């Protein structure tokens, strides 16, 4: 019996272990919804295609070894989704995005919403192609997923024209291949591992910087074992946050700048030398660099690598420990770690007063301390950062107790990920509390997705630091051009909590620090999607530099 292309696509997705797709309805992609109903795949419809792709990105982050899926309609549907795809591209998130297209039979005739989507998507995907035969849809899906999860993971884009999606094929003709979303674990070259151990054996003040590829390699346990056996001071950035137990003696947070000034060797574990590491300039010129990552093309970017260790990072750390044992090498950097720990403790003491400030408007650090203390009463919360200043502050104060317990956009710095990420996180973890730390600017981008959370009964809690400004931009603007030249960076103390109430959620408004904790508790008790809108101090001091 012949079936339409949407049923073939859904069967292939089921074979790939897909439980949920994120979408905004469109005529070009309607067949996939019908197929998902047959296969028991949940269809979560959002209010903007960007949110659908962001949610697919977060689904992949929440479910290592799986793939996030979004379906977006042609023309403006695809262009709306571009930002989400670009964010997944920079964050290395393995996602599959289906794009609609006008009928293949009318290609280049000017169908409704017809445009060259593949040309738009190709620079920001690992794979971008179109399927022009209905019976080959499963084959193309497998190919797209294989590209997305292999090596350095990332997004894949598959376009299926409307008449191909709605076209018919026999099951016997449309082979559904085996689809693997877990790539093979590639072992590193043992010679390079031996060289890495030799360099570390000569080092006196090394550090380990754990980044995004630790997560995609599922290497947290192996990295922590390596750190605990060598006592190497360990810092995290990107999606490496949460890959180290915060209670580990080797995990450090506030002494990174001092460490980078003094080190003689650095292990870059899935950490790129991009703007977050000043393109390698943060590392002393005479320091040795050992780089662990998933793909050789990343080695030596912006700064020459002394030892490139290419492969799955779990395998790389295991092999490093194995080679230490084989060679009888014992590495012990505990004295250097303790020196940095003392600096860490001193920095903690410096910020203590601000964490307990009673000033009004509320000190942003006090707000984050209240959130931190409240989070400590919850069972394994997942926190999402969506903003500029307030998220940078929160990242220093809120502990990340495990991998996946914190998510932010990543190196593209995309604002508006908060509710889309939270929707995926709550669907993937229905028994865990999901919390968003918002800036007031970022809320305006996808805040309407509270409607989606209400419709699907997702009790996500947002905490918004409202300083009535695009603070990260306003400060340098005033500092460089003068306070009388501030333009396009000021907002209003808008009652975003009332917006959430109007959408069917629960809203709270706080103007004093002692109001925050009770408001958070009421929001959690409401059982609804909620927002705690906190009026915080608007900082105008510019210390120089723009974080790019």
Provide a quick synopsis of the model:
The chain is an alpha/beta fold and 548 residues long.
Helical region count? Answer: 21
Reported for the largest beta sheet, the result is:
6 strands, parallel
Low-confidence stretches: none
Shape, please? globular
Number of strands: 19
Instruction: Indicate the mean pLDDT.
Output: 94
How far apart are the termini? 57 Å
* Secondary structure category: alpha/beta
What can you tell me about this protein's structure?
This protein has 548 residues and is an alpha/beta fold. It is 40% helix and 16% strand. It has helices spanning 5-15, 30-39, 49-62, 76-91, 117-121, 137-149, 162-166, 190-202, 212-216, 220-230, 256-262, 313-327, 334-355, 364-375, 389-397, 418-428, 440-446, 450-455, 471-481, 496-502, 516-526; strands spanning 2-4, 20-23, 42-45, 68-72, 95-101, 127-130, 155-161, 168-170, 206-210, 234-236, 265-269, 288-293, 307-310, 382-386, 406-407, 434-439, 461-466, 506-510, 530-535. Strands 3-2-4-5-7-6 form a 6-stranded parallel β-sheet, sandwiched between helices. The protein has a 6-stranded parallel β-sheet with strand order 15-14-16-17-19-18, sandwiched between helices. Strands 10-9-11-12-13 form a 5-stranded parallel β-sheet, sandwiched between helices. Helix 14 (364-375) packs across helix 21 (516-526). The protein is globular, with a radius of gyration of 24 Å. It starts with a strand and ends in a 13-residue tail after the last strand. 53% of the residues are buried.
């Amino acid at each position: 019996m012949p079936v339409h292309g949407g049923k073939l696509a859904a069967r292939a997705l089921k074979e790939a272990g897909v439980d949920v797709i994120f979408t905004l309805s469109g005529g070009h992609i309607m067949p996939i919804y019908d197929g998902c109903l047959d296969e028991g795949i949940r269809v979560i419809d959002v209010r903007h295609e960007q949110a659908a792709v962001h949610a697919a990105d977060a689904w992949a982050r929440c479910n290592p070894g799986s793939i996030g899926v979004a379906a977006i309609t042609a023309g403006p549907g695809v262009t709306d989704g571009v930002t989400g795809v670009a964010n997944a591209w920079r964050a290395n998130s393995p996602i599959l995005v289906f794009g609609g297209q006008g009928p293949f039979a009318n290609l280049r005739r000017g169908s409704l919403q017809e445009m060259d989507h593949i040309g738009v998507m190709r620079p920001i995907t690992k794979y971008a192609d179109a399927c022009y035969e209905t019976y080959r849809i499963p084959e193309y899906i497998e190919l797209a997923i294989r590209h997305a999860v292999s090596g350095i993971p990332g997004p894949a884009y598959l376009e299926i024209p409307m008449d191909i999606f709605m076209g018919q094929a026999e099951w016997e003709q449309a082979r559904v291949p085996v689809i693997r979303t877990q790539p093979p674990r590639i072992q590193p070259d043992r010679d390079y591992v031996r060289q890495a151990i030799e360099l570390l054996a000569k080092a006196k003040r090394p550090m380990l910087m754990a980044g995004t590829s630790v997560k995609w390699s599922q290497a947290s346990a192996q990295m922590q074992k390596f750190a605990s056996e060598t006592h190497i001071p360990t810092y995290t950035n990107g999606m490496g946050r949460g890959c180290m137990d915060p209670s580990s003696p080797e995990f450090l947070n506030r002494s990174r700048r001092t460490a980078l000034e003094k080190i003689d060797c650095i292990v870059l574990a899935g950490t790129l030398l991009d703007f977050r590491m000043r393109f390698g300039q943060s590392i002393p010129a005479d320091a040795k660099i050992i780089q662990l990552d998933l793909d050789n093309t990343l080695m030596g970017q912006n700064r020459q690598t002394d030892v490139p260790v290419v492969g799955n990072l779990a395998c790389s750390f295991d092999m490093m420990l194995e080679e230490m044992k084989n060679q009888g090498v014992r590495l012990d950097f505990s004295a250097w770690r303790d020196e940095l720990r003392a600096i860490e403790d001193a920095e903690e003491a410096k910020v203590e007063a601000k964490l307990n400030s009673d000033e009004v408007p509320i000190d942003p650090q006090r707000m984050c301390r209240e959130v931190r203390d409240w989070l400590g009463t919850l069972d394994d919360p997942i926190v999402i950062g969506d903003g500029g200043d307030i998220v940078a502050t929160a990242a220093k104060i809120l502990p990340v107790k495990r991998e996946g317990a914190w998510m932010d956009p990543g190196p593209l710095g995309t604002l508006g990920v908060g509710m889309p990420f939270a929707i995926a996180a709550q669907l993937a973890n229905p028994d865990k509390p999901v919390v968003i730390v918002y800036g007031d600017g970022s809320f305006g981008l996808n805040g309407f997705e509270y409607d989606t959370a209400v419709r699907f009964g997702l009790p996500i809690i947002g905490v918004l630091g409202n300083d009535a400004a695009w603070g990260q931009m306003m400060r340098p603007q005033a500092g460089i051009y003068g306070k009388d030249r501030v333009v396009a960076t000021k907002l209003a103390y808008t009652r975003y909590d009332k917006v959430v109430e109007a959408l069917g959620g629960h809203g709270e408004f706080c103007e004093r620090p002692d109001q925050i904790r009770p408001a958070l508790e009421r929001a959690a008790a409401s059982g609804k999607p909620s927002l705690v809108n906190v009026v915080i101090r608007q900082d105008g001091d510019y210390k120089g530099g723009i974080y790019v």
